[in-house]
Specification:
Blueprint (H helix, E strand, L loop, with lengths): L2 H23 L2 H17 L10 H24 L22 H16 L2 H11 L4 H8 L3 H18 L7
C-alpha cells in the first residue's frame, strides 16, 4: 500500500476515532490533540501495519496506548520530590504542627449536638451519615422519601446553628 493510499484510509477513519478520543479525554481540545497524535504515529509507522488486518482496531490500539502514555507523563510531572534539607523550618514560627486536640474538641461537640437532636431528625440523619440511601431510610422508617430528605435537611440546619462557634469567616 502506498503512502497516499494509507493516508487516504487514515483520513476516512478519523470519523470513527474522534468519539473514542473524546471518551478517553473528556475534553474536545485534548481529543483533537490525541486524534492528531494517533494519526501521526500511525502514518509514521505505516510499514508496521500488516495488509489485510483490521486497520480500525490497529488505530484504536495506537490511540489507547498514546492516551495511557500521555496520562502517565502527566502524573509523573505532577509528582515532586524534595530532597533538600529543611532544617531552617525547625525554629520557624510560621510552620506549626497541630496535635489534633482542636479536632477532638470539635468532634465531641458534634456528637453532643447530634445527641440533642429530636429522634425524628437524628435517626434519618445518622442513617444517611452511615451510608444508607434515601429510599432505604424511607423503607426502614416507613415514611415517604420526601419526609426523609426533609428531616435530614432540618437536622443539618439545626446542627449548623448549634455548631456556629466553629464557623469560619
Amino acid at each position: 500500500m502506498t503512502a497516499l493510499e494509507f493516508g487516504y484510509r487514515l483520513n476516512s477513519l478519523r470519523v470513527f476515532l474522534k468519539p473514542y478520543a473524546y471518551r478517553l479525554t473528556r475534553d474536545n481540545d485534548e481529543a483533537n490533540d490525541l486524534l492528531q497524535e494517533t494519526v501521526l504515529k500511525a502514518f509514521s509507522n505505516r510499514e508496521k501495519f500488516s495488509e489485510g488486518t483490521n486497520i480500525k482496531a490497529w488505530l484504536y490500539t495506537i490511540m489507547k496506548n498514546t492516551f495511557i502514555t500521555n496520562y502517565q507523563k502527566k502524573v509523573r510531572q505532577k509528582t515532586f520530590v524534595d530532597k533538600t534539607d529543611n532544617d531552617h523550618y525547625i525554629n520557624s514560627s510560621k510552620h506549626t504542627i497541630e496535635n489534633g486536640a482542636y479536632g477532638n474538641f470539635k468532634m465531641k461537640d458534634i456528637k453532643r449536638s447530634i445527641k440533642k437532636l429530636d429522634d425524628n431528625y437524628k435517626i434519618p440523619f445518622m442513617m444517611h451519615y452511615k451510608g444508607y440511601k434515601y429510599y432505604e431510610i424511607a423503607e426502614h422508617l416507613n415514611v415517604p422519601i420526601g419526609t426523609v430528605k426533609n428531616r435530614i435537611h432540618l437536622a443539618r440546619k439545626e446542627l449548623k446553628e448549634m455548631l456556629q462557634v466553629y464557623r469560619t469567616v
